[in-house]
Design a protein that fits this description.
This protein is an alpha/beta fold. It is built from 20 helices and 18 strands. The chain folds into three domains: about 80 residues, Ubiquitin-like (UB roll), CATH 3.10.20.30; about 280 residues, NAD(P)-binding Rossmann-like Domain (Rossmann fold); about 100 residues, Oxidized Rhodanese, domain 1. Bound molecules: zinc ion.
């Protein structure tokens, strides 16, 4: 018997099991047994040709099976097989050379050592402020100057960026850049601790900058109120030593990765989903990159975002601080960086696990014969059409729906969210069928009805509309912006979430 761990996003296809015991003497047999038991899992693990999907990795204990004898690898009694899909809301063992440890790692960041750091000096006030660092031999005056000379660019001032920014600033990292274009809203405050209630409705950048400057006036904060894109990423990244990726979507993950590989910068990676997090340092000069781990993103909608799937508020704190810790270690050149290792954190069981990552010689950007030599269109790469293309004639606005209901039109309201979301708020008279059950339970619906499908924000309902279209339903409408838009535009007494 092997233990197969099922990741959170796929548990809905495996009767919500976290771990399943399955017999079998090879990985193929065990996974075959698993998908026989949970047939819905099959299409998430394998493509039409029966090959394992590129955005799902399988590990036998801590080894990626792609580098073992693949599916034929023998499984021993009690082995753990982990299924690790890419998560966004939120790298490989080194080719062979052992990880350098201790002070030898200084070479990791050429820009921070030598000239620049030695030019730095600390004022009496700074010496007092950083006293507890100066007392640590591995940091000391030399290390504190390196921190002051260093620069870290945070992608996103959200759940991961908040704790990372605060601790990097407190530690005395001399220059912190933040890229974000969002406004603070009240749903952010459950985890984005850099922002305060007073900041609701204001720019996240302004809020973050004010908080950091309040914490440590010796830090220079640079803000970039823009959406990171293929047009601006290289320009933004080039003046920073380290990039910390705290975004929540796959196009930006790949964009950050590729820009870091092209510029030779380390990408301190963190991602989160519900109770689980991942962290690594992708640094192509020394180890694998994100594409070595996941050559392709999952199709849109398969892995829910934190906005859709939720996240435990303290989780980004843990992962964001792992990112900050790794950034500081890289700057100081101490310890063993998380290069070539993927750290998995499960808050529910309070367990950290570590998987070995390898550099893929065929990686399209950091491999031996790279095919990607400049930044590409990441939206298209991730299969995402632009918002304009996404709007179809099946969309219905909240106000239009209200008018039609007021006129007494006979509309069937289909709620495709989860039961716990239904409990927060729902439209009167609606029927609940979670999006993953829609195909299976389509017989409960009638093609004769005019059906208005809604979810929280309009993404899952769009998927449900597509599924129903494939089953022959034609009179379908997707509530644009979901129930949150309804609450905002039609019914102010309804809570948003
Ligand atoms: Zn790579």
């Amino acid at each position: 018997m092997a233990i197969v761990t099922i990741p959170t996003p796929l548990r809905q296809y495996a009767a919500q099991q976290r771990e399943v015991n399955i017999g079998g003497i090879t990985i193929d047999e065990v996974l075959g047994g698993l998908t026989a038991q949970y047939p819905e899992l099959r299409r998430h693990l394998y493509n039409e040709n029966g090959s394992m999907r590129n955005f799902v990795n399988v590990y036998l204990n801590d080894e990626d099976v792609r580098y073992l004898k693949k599916g034929n690898t023998a499984v021993a009694e009690g082995d753990t097989i982990s299924i690790i899909p890419a998560i966004a809301g939120g790298s490989a063992a080194l080719p062979n050379p052992p990880l350098r440890s201790g002070r030898e790692n200084n070479a990791l960041l050429q820009g921070v050592k030598g000239q620049q750091a030695s030019d730095m000096s600390l004022s009496h006030d700074e010496i007092l402020r950083y006293s507890r660092h100066l007392l640590v031999p591995e940091v000391a005056m030399d290390g504190q100057k390196k921190l002051k000379a260093a620069s870290v660019l945070l992608i996103g001032a959200g759940g991961l960026g908040s704790p990372a920014a605060l601790y990097l600033a407190a530690a005395g990292v001399g220059r912190i850049g933040i890229v974000d274009f969002d406004v603070v809203d009240s749903t952010n405050l459950q985890r984005q601790i850099i922002h305060s209630s007073e900041a609701i409705g204001t720019s996240k950048l302004a809020s973050a900058k004010a908080r950091i400057e309040g914490l440590n006036p010796y830090v220079k904060v640079e803000t970039y109120e823009t959406m990171l894109s293929s047009e601006n990423a290289l320009e933004l990244f080039k003046d920073y030593d380290i990039i910390a990726d705290g975004t929540d979507n796959f196009p930006t993950r790949y964009l950050v990765n590729d820009a870091c590989v092209l510029l030779g910068k380390p990408n301190v990676y963190g991602s989160i989903f519900r109770f689980e997090g991942q962290a690594s340092v992708f640094y192509a000069k020394e180890g694998p990159c994100y594409r070595c781990l996941y050559p392709e993103p999952p199709p849109p909608g398969l892995v829910p975002s934190c906005a859709e799937g939720g996240v435990l508020g303290v989780l980004p704190g843990t992962i964001g601080l792992i990112q900050a810790t790794e950034a500081i270690k890289l700057i100081l050149g101490i310890g063993e960086p998380l290069i070539g290792r993927l750290m998995l954190y499960d808050a529910l069981s309070m367990r950290f696990r570590e998987l070995k990552l390898r550099k893929d010689p065929d990686c399209p950007i950091c491999g031996e014969h790279p095919t990607i030599t400049e930044l590409i269109d990441y939206q298209a790469f991730c299969g995402i059409t632009t918002a304009d293309e996404g709007f179809t004639e099946v969309d219905i606005s909240p106000l239009e729906l209200k008018e039609r209901l007021d006129r007494g039109e006979d509309l069937m309201l289909l709620d495709v969210r989860e039961a716990h979301e239904w409990d927060i708020a729902h439209l009167e008279g609606a029927t609940l069928i979670p999006v993953n059950d829609v195909t299976e339970r389509a017989h409960e619906l009638s093609t004769a009805d005019d059906i208005v499908v809604y979810c929280k924000a309009g993404t899952r309902s769009a998927r449900a509309v597509q599924q129903l279209q494939m089953l022959g339903f034609r009179k379908l409408h997707n509530l644009r912006g979901g129930i949150n838009a309804w609450a905002a535009q039609v019914d102010p007494t309804m809570p948003s979430y």
